[in-house]
Design goal:
Helices cover about 25% and strands about 35% of the residues. By secondary structure, the protein is of the alpha+beta class.
Length: about 130
């Protein structure tokens, strides 16, 4: 079951990031949606930052044994559902140029490139229902 990660559980988030050898700094100002196992260990998290004009998707961290199980897709869909409930119609993400895997994932999930910088690519996605 997907839920919002309580701030008291952020040490678990740090442990998950260390386990998967995350190569980026975690922005703890994000709202994190998470899924836990039966022992309350984090299986994965998706973090969105709400400090900008549009929400910015910042992190997706999945523990090693849960990769390739569609948990990332489940967390992304839950993120979009959460954003729609909050009445947002768009959200963005920034992907480093060298992170080809995340660029492909963003495009596969329907994000569209809208700007490029020296370091990476900005993507956005509409949350408006298709008619």
């Amino acid at each position: 079951m997907i839920s919002i990660l309580d701030i008291k559980e952020y040490p678990k988030l740090t442990q998950l990031a260390e386990k998967v050898k995350l190569d980026e700094k975690i922005d703890f100002k994000c709202v994190f949606l998470c899924e836990k196992d039966k022992q309350e260990n984090l299986r994965g998290v998706a973090g969105t930052n709400f400090r900008y004009l549009f929400p910015r998707f910042e992190h997706i961290i999945i523990r090693s044994e849960d990769q390739k199980t569609k948990l990332g897709v489940k967390l992304m869909l839950a993120t979009e559902q959460f954003l729609r409930k909050k009445k947002y119609s768009y959200y963005t993400c920034f992907v480093l140029k060298e992170n080809l895997r995340m660029r492909n994932y963003a495009e596969k999930f329907g994000f569209k490139e809208y700007s490029e910088t020296e370091k990476g690519i900005w993507f956005s996605k509409s949350l408006k229902e298709k008619i």
